[in-house]
Amino acid sequence: MPSVLPLGDPVPADGGFPPSVLQELPTRADKPLGLYVHIPFCSVRCGYCDFNTYTASDLGPGASRQSYPDTLIAELEFAASVLEASGAPARQLSTVFFGGGTPTLLPAEELARILGTAQRLFGFVPGAEITTEANPDTVTEHSAEVLAQAGFTRVSLGMQSAVPSVLATLDRTHNPQNVPAAHDAARAAGLQTSVDLIYGTPGESLQDWRSSLEAAIALQPDHISAYSLIVEDGTAMAAKIRRGELPDIDPDDQADKYLLTDELLQQAGYHWYEVSNFSTARATRSQHNLNYWLDSDWWGAGPGAHSHVAGLRWWNVKHPAAYAQRLHADTSPGHGREILDAEAKVLEHLMLRLRIAEGLDIAEYNGLPARTASGTAAISAADLQNLVREGLIEQEPARPSSSAPEGRAVLTLKGRLLADAVTRRLLG
């Protein structure tokens, strides 16, 4: 089952923000505001999955797929009232992302209704990016047309692998032959396309992974995500590995597969813009995910969904029944919340900026008030030179008139494989 939520501080029934956040909000008027919509339903629970998802038999009384859209809409209305009560300048949504679970297990018309409510309550900035994740078996020409007409701009297909034996190990039930059909349906409707892949599955050979990459590239999607498999405690796959039914994850194998990923995708015209994400152009990057990496604000709607506004992070109750009960009582579905302290802000700034192709602005980082408050050391020229010598980062040269380290630290290919280690080195 999904992992346990952190406790945090209690969320008030009205969802109101603490005074420090109310003071900060006016300064974030130019920050993008995103909306994440969690659809927690799956037809089958995959053995590797640690997300907050449920099959029909898991739901129990008080929750159903049929009633869920109305419950989500109730949270969107609640969110609009909380943001209005904060007194902050109104912001339209720059991105909306329907994730799961499998959002497309709901009828496309219901996804359209939820999106229409978000547009009515918040409005969309011109050119807003609006994405839904989808299982390839659930996308048809009709559903893709409904989504496009409703305002969706992008579909992210959960392909994971093109090799049947690998899909079986992952407990993925979709038919690999349906991936091209789903992709073509989305394209015909005028939607941008993204394909999600997972590498490092127990028993997956390097040739298996090459086959999956080549199959994804052959579709010519706008965007490809390639994630290394992480086996979380409490999952069915973790239990199988513990019992010796599956081999354990091999970090060296995963590194080889990432190197192959970068090689084949670059040859095909895809460029990395985040360690696990590649796109054909700047315009086809996932703006919603970039908002996470660039310290923007987002409201997460749905059971277990996480939100972030002006340094305040909160998360909803996990189970759809408890979530529905809270909203039917017109109270916040929030389970807990926390205000990021100076140390957490510095760590996240460094870690997240390093993961993107633009890299870490060194002067900006050294000038962070939170860095000084946390007692974190500034990055020195010697720190950077050592990492450059080791082939872990590239660094733009400082201006001739400046003796302080400047420019941007950008991970090399080797550095992307060791991103966490580079972060620890720079923290000092």
TrEMBL record:
Can you say where in the cell this protein is located? Cytoplasm
Q: Does the record bear Iron in its keywords?
A: yes
Q: Which InterPro entries match?
A: Aldolase_TIM, Coproporphyrinogen-III_oxidase, Elp3/MiaA/NifB-like_rSAM, HemW-like, rSAM, rSAM_sf
Q: Which UniProt keywords apply?
A: 4Fe-4S, Chaperone, Cytoplasm, Heme, Iron, Iron-sulfur, Metal-binding, S-adenosyl-L-methionine
Domain annotation Radical SAM core: ranges: 27-274
User: Is Chaperone included in the keywords of this UniProt record?
Assistant: yes
Describe the family membership recorded for this protein in Swiss-Prot or TrEMBL: Belongs to the anaerobic coproporphyrinogen-III oxidase family. HemW subfamily.
Outline what the protein does. Answer: Probably acts as a heme chaperone, transferring heme to an unknown acceptor. Binds one molecule of heme per monomer, possibly covalently. Binds 1 [4Fe-4S] cluster. The cluster is coordinated with 3 cysteines and an exchangeable S-adenosyl-L-methionine.
Please report the name of this protein according to its UniProt entry. Answer: Heme chaperone HemW
- Its gene is hemW
